[in-house]
Amino acid sequence: MEQVDKQEGLDASAVPFGDPWYGATADGRGEHAGDAAPGDGPGDAVPRQRVHSAAEIYLEVQRSPAFQEVRSRYRRFVFPAALAFLLWYLAYVVAATAAPGLMARPVAGAVNVAMVAGLGQFLTTFLLTWAYARHARLRRDRAALDLRWETQEMTRGAGRP
């Protein structure tokens, strides 16, 4: 068998991903030596500013208008959708217990109203899941990712002396 030599350069584990959290640990072990903060070198004239703790940074982000907008968009979708689904489910349960004659009424052959309503529950679950994923993708994901990047950049210096 012929042996193939490995080419010089980056191996697969050294290729960075587009994820801002990849390789960044709380104690800074995942960062490269060349990523020193401004003011670390002897010739830097940039004064060192107070380094905020991670908790302070996260509280600041939580109070930001951008974060509040993401949360507001989430609540404006989830609360009405959850309420509508809960009412639909309770209507099914109440109808099954209070109106057994209605639920036993045949629709087609052996299929009755209760079976159609039960299948409607499953269909509603899948439709609601699709609608939630679509809403998140179109209305929240970009803003949440931007907040994540900003927070990661702000915490990059947190924990360093």
Rounded average pLDDT: 76
Which strands sit side by side, in order, in the main sheet?
A: 1-2
Total count of strands: 2
Assembly of the depicted chains: single chain
**How many whole angstroms does the radius of gyration measure?**
27 Å
Question: Uncertain runs with pLDDT below 50, 5 residues or more?
Answer: 4-12, 21-48
The profile of the biggest β sheet is:
2 strands, antiparallel
Give the amount of beta strand, in percent: under 5%
Number of helices: 4
- Taking the alpha carbons of the first and last residues, their distance comes to 54 Å
Estimate the global geometry from the Cα principal axes: elongated
Going by helix content, strand content and strand pairing, the class is: mainly alpha
SSE pattern, N- to C-terminal: HHHEEH
Give the % helix.
55-70%
Structure characterization notes:
It is a single chain. With about 160 residues, the protein is mostly helical. The protein is built from 4 helices and 2 strands. Strands 1-2 form a two-stranded antiparallel ribbon. A hairpin with a 2-residue loop joins strand 1 and strand 2. Helix 1 packs across helix 4 and helix 2 packs antiparallel against helix 4. The radius of gyration is 27 Å and the shape is elongated. The model is unreliable at about 5-10 and about 20-50 (pLDDT under 50).
